[in-house]
Amino acid sequence: MSTVTTSFADVASSNVALRTFLHGLPGVDRVGADQRAAMLGTRSIKTTAKAEAIDLAIRMVDLTTLEGADTPGKVRAMCAKAVHPDPADPAVPKVAAVCVYPDLVAQAVGALAGSGVKVASVATAFPSGRSSLDVKVADTRLAVEAGADEIDMVIDRGAFLSGDYVKVFEEITAIKEACGEAHLKVILETGELATYDNVRRASWLAMLAGGDFIKTSTGKVQPAATFPVTMVMLEAVRDFLAATGRAVGVKPAGGIRTTKDAIKMLVLVNEVAGDRWLAPDLFRLGASSVLNDLLMQRQKMATGRYAGPDYFTLD
User: Fold this and answer.
1) Known Pfam families for this protein (predicted)?
2) Would you call 46 a catalytic residue per the annotation?
3) Number of domains in the chain
4) What is the pLDDT of residues 99-135, one digit of tens each?
């Protein structure tokens, strides 16, 4: 076991020691981070690589519906699109996962059976996270028992910002245990964390508590998946792998709307974390709205023509 993991395990029961550990992480130069993210955002890829990048981005999408008006029919339609994003072109790859509320997991599981597309579910009183641990664990178990492959939980930002790191750590570990074999994505809600230093601390806290992915946002708070914040999180997973030997995924969610945005994210991943993360098992795009633009750009490259705005289904 690495020194970092051992040290963290030794202090996990002490909020003072946790604070010392997390605040001992290297600080983030905000100006430097913004400048580097802006510079990487100007990088371009060759036309010959663009088609591959588009297909890779499609395979990384978590197609999501998280509205109070969601219905079983809407979920089934979204699942059909996840498996065949463009029914007219069977060469278009499947997306990574479909993400729904816990009470609709069974519908998604049935619709996606045998497809290879994973079923993800938000839990833990999404999106606020304002509930008791018992309720959060029950919410998680409901989704897992219905067949969810992945759980997207939200951390208690109030506890984190108050410096109660032990509470956040213990909640993540309890939810991870309730997940069983399901993977756990830990949503930091970076738009509420205020500083890049807090994003780095929350990233490490989530990873050391057992998270399989760290995720920027619920999509309900702005700003969401900015390039600088995603860069800080990619640096965290890179450094965590070096320190512990365990690779953790990253999922930017919210605000990624165009193919250009998606490809910029892939460039960011490659330049900051490395090509190991250029795969759906370690990088996802929580951006349902970007899928249609990826499909339009893909068709344009194949045919030389853009499809009309109503050619693909609207989610």
Assistant:
1) DeoC
2) no
3) 1
4) 999 999 999 999 999 999 999 999 999 999 999 999 9
